[in-house]
Model the fold of this input.
Amino acid sequence: MRIALIGAAVLGLALGIPMAAQGPPPGAAGAPQFAAARPIRVFIRAGTKTHGPGQHDYPQFLADWSSVLTDRGAVVDGGLHFPSAEDLANVDVMVMYKGDAGYMTANEKAVLETFLRRGGGLVSFHDTLCGDDPAWYGNVVGGAKKHGEMNFSAGPIKYTIADPSHPIMQGMSSFEIDDEAFFRMTWSENPKIHVLATAPMPTTGEVVPQIWTYERQMFGGAASAQPFRAFVWMQGHTYANFADPKVQPMILRGIAWAAKAPVDALMTVRPARGGGGGGRGAGRGAGRQGGAN
Done:
């Protein structure tokens, strides 16, 4: 497992957004199938740390969640770099937690679009949604925000669960965390996002989607292209919230859903395999600060 680890010194939905119809339930005719006998293959796209202590800790996420997912049977790769086509060749889902990740070169966009055309999944957290071309990126994950605009609001995020029947939200009821939310979004219109939870902005009261799914066939692709899935949790400004017991199971189900695997595929910690370096979980826990578990 090739994981780039950075030490502590590295600086780092009135709604107006109609909800899209929910797709077929897991196992229904036409629903994606997954070979349950094999592990989910994940690439974590992180970045260098920004903001103050306990905020936007992308390298720590890479370290902690490499361990969280590996402990649940996933095969995990990742780094602080944008993945190459080779990196994504056998990946089911790319998990992105990086500041302003919407900024991509033409080559990076091409690599991502190729990954999505074959049905690869995306998971996006917090300001991963931010970049210079929200119209393009909004058609990748369902909604995006423009860098440089006043479009964030920090404080108590009071979620209202919009679709408690969705498998990602199973067992969840409305809850609250302290974090940061975004508004003034550029939303995909065709298709629209499927809203899982909304929250009023702490500063303005405007109700905006904060958790959603998005499914489409990649624009510009051949008719044979596979549909892809994206899952978005807009929070993550406060790093500790990734380990919140109300949040972490939802994230694990969201990653599995985006990978077109059974949503409970990552919910059970598996017994560690035999010792020695280089095996599953090699290097786990490096740089951990008591984050996700």
